[in-house]
Amino acid sequence: MHLDKHIKDFFHLVKIQQIEIYNEFSLQHELGVYLRNHLDSTFKIQFERNIRFFGIQEKLIKKELDIAIYNSQTNEKYAIELKFPKNGQHPESMFSFSKDIKFMEQIKEHGFTNTYAVTYVEDKLFYKGSNTSGIYAYFRSGHLLHGEIIKPTGKKDEHFYINGSYQINWTSLDNDACYYIVTI
User: Fold this and answer.
1) In 3-state terms, the chain is what percent helix, strand and coil (to 5)?
2) What is the predicted pLDDT for the residue at 162?
3) What are phi and psi of 160, to 5 degrees?
4) pLDDT at residue 155, as a whole number
5) How confident is the model at residue 148 (pLDDT cuts 50, 70, 90)?
6) Sign of CA dihedral 25, 55, 40, 102
7) CA dihedral angle for residue 81, residue 163, residue 108, residue 6, rounded to 10 degrees
8) What's the CA gap between 48 and 43, in Å, rounded?
9) What confidence category does residue 156 fall into, taking pLDDT thresholds of 50, 70 and 90?
10) 162: closest CA among 173, 178, 171, 150?
11) How far is CA 155 from CA 93, 98, 150, 159, in A?
12) Spatial contact of 160 and 135, defined as CB atoms under 8 Å apart
């Protein structure tokens, strides 16, 4: 299944205003409904599914999948983590974007067919700006997201390691709205 194509098709409908999203909750549910209507009916699409449902007992960076898609007949399993930040906090949000990618790496290591980290923004400071170092470099300058990621503000006591190397490629929808899909 080419889930990334379905996600791109969904965002095309957002662009032409056939689907309206206004916060992260609406993004999650509108995308889930879209996928239910466009995937084979043998796939189940569930929201906020705890990882234990899939037999994952160890502690991961997060506990629940924003969208879980699975087919018990074919043993295919997919996961999507979503972000739609609305309150600025650019470095903290970028850290959360990175955390979703790490979580999707962990889920993929537990037998999922493919996993996806999807972010939609309506604020150009997530993908453009004069500061292109640190956490900003991955989202504004095209540096590969890889290695140790350290919380950029506060005590800087939270960190994790991203095993893969991921290019953040923003796709423009209109004005300041953009999204990216990272496939793991």
Assistant:
1) 35, 30, 35
2) 97
3) -155, 170
4) 76
5) very high
6) positive
7) 50
8) 16
9) confident
10) 150
11) 16, 18, 10, 11
12) no
Q: Specify the amino acid at residue 24.
A: E
Rg of the Cα atoms in the chain:
16
Tell me the two tokens of residue 60.
Answer: 């991961």
Q: Angle, nearest 10°, between helix axes 3-15 and 24-38?
A: 120
- pTM for this one? 0.95
pLDDT band at 18 (very low <50, low <70, confident <90, very high): very high
Q: Whole-angstrom Cα distance, residue 29 to residue 12?
A: 16
87 token code pair: 């309150």
Spatial contact of 112 and 37, defined as CB atoms under 8 Å apart: no
| C-alpha–C-alpha distance, residues 94 and 151, integer Å | 9
Domains and CATH numbers, the chain: 3-124+169-183 (3.90.1570)
Handedness of CA 99, 101, 107, 110 (dihedral sign): negative
Which residues does 155 contact at the CB level (< 8 Å), separation at least 6? none
* 24 and 82 Cβ atoms separated by less than 8 Å: yes
Query: Among residues 76, 77, 74, 70, which one has the least CA distance to residue 107?
Result: 77
